[in-house]
Amino acid sequence: MPIFMFSQNLVYKPINPFFGGDTFNYQQLLASANAQNNFEEDSGFSFDQATDLENFTESLNRQLLNSLSQDLFTQQFGDQSLSVGTFVFGSLVVEVSPTSNGLSVNILDTATGEQTQITIPN
Fold it and tell me: pTM value?
């Protein structure tokens, strides 16, 4: 007894115009993608250049802070080099320890939890 089978050709036609689909689908796909997009641009970030007055003020602040840190260093350590140990300056905890690469200086701000590590090579 013969068995009869029927079949048809399956043809794939892409929808997306970037993959060979109909170009009239572009607007619909773009609208669908925009509707699903939950991200918003951060309008607070800009690439504005600082004015000369702002640059001067920032430079002056850096120089004053540098001078202050040098004075604190001289008061704490005198003319000698940086010694190993743990030192507290207000909310800053500075830990100086020797490593194989040189001297490691860990600075922890206990108020914010921020931490910085500086390695001074041999």
Answer: 0.41
